[in-house]
Amino acid sequence: MNSVPRLWEELSESSDFVCYEHQTNTAPFFIGYYKSLTESKVLHQHILGCLSNNSEISFEDLYHLIPVAEKEISFDWDQIHNNILRGNVAIQYGHESHHCILVNAAASKGRSVTIPEIEFTVEGPKEAFVESLDINLNLIRKRVPFPEFRIKELTIGSISKSRVAICYIKGVTNEQYLNTCIQRIEDVQFDQVTDNTLLQQMIEDNSNSIFPQTIGTERPDYVAWAVSSGQICVLKDGSPTAFFAPVSLGSFFITYEDYYLPWIIASILRLIRVFSVLFSVFASPLYVAVMTYHGHAISNVFLPTIVSSRINVPFPPVVEVLIMELVIELLREAGARLPTKIGQTIGIVGGIVLGTAAVEAALTSNFLLIIVALSALASFATPIFRMSATIRILRFPFIFAAQLWGLLGIFIGTLALVAHLLRLTSLGMPYLVPFYPFRTSDLYDTVIRPPYSKFHHRFSFFRSPKPVRFDNENANAKRDIDE
């Protein structure tokens, strides 16, 4: 393909491609575009309108007369082809021309900005990302009206040709982390990247780990906070979510609503989440270990109740636990795949009916039913869905370890988990910071959300060239006049 006419001939094999010829007194103009991608108003008013009003217009005059800001003259056939596929209108002058005017007339079809559906909060803004990259960048840009805020666009996917935007603040974001992120995205070798969740998995440090190493969000205010802290945000055209990195393990148990609540309340809620995670992972394995190997550890107060609840159960504790855990996961998956109202009904009715029937049929004990139900509820306390799924999966290795070696097996499993987490990184940053490597100055805003007077420094593990947010001494000196 070495000329525009040959490009027209190839593209005309698609039924939605239009090649329109407009005659003038000098030479004809050939206008090519995909009608499924082009805004007809821009085409007829701004492009065809200029041609109809002047029958002797030249190629250069037409370029200056078209009242569209995004336009250019191109001699590159690949660029012309790619821009047409993005909704541009190509205008060729004469039969043997080797260059075109490219006018952006892409149709902006899609849903409008709505409230967050996954990360809904009572306090704070009620805007969420949509599938349009330009709208999403606008939502971030208006929250970060800072001249050093930078957006770098890349194209990935040999078939999808997806636009990807990398957002960061120059002088705040560490250059090494930024270059690592850009290099990994540029090195992606995949033909169809349809969503940001695919890109997350492709650029993570360890794709074989069940622990996510980036955080996805649908909230522009969360992204604005992340980039101001020194992190890097990545958005993709066609995806209603963004993700940012580097992140630590503690970041997955923080919801952005914490920053809209008083710091004492937010800190208590964070502690509840941490306790919920520990309970969700270890409750069922501890039941298996105690009932199998350590029955003597049961208090005399609870012993009659537990014995009476299990006296007619024919299965060993591990089988009993696996049956209930799998039933809970089945109900969860069924509720998630069905329409919203039906899914809620199936989850509630199924849980009540199956739980009651399992106890009456002596397939499980009342005590275990309570433990499994509380574990399932506790797993929902994790605000990030990918981490919530990880916690659900973690229970099963611990259950098998408890069956093999009792409490020693749980201890060995915990050591193996900690060893794996110590090896994990996010864009090269250790996953367990600030606990490993231990940094006392970075312990704020982890399990406890401190008051905003303590946020005068950015986290040192982000290695920001500008670690100071504001002068703490100067801020404390400026009090109200009546104090």
Automatic annotation (TrEMBL):
Keyword Metal-binding: no
Recorded GO CC terms: membrane
UniProt entry keywords in alphabetical sequence: Membrane, Transmembrane, Transmembrane helix
InterPro entries the record matches: Spore_Ger, UPF0353/GerABKA_families
Protein transport keyword on record: no
Top-level taxon: Bacteria
TM region(s), chain numbering: 271-293, 343-361, 367-386, 398-422
Example of a GO biological process term: spore germination
Homology family: Belongs to the GerABKA family.
Entry-linked PANTHER family: LEUCINE ZIPPER PROTEIN 4, SPORE GERMINATION PROTEIN
Protein name per the record: GerA spore germination protein
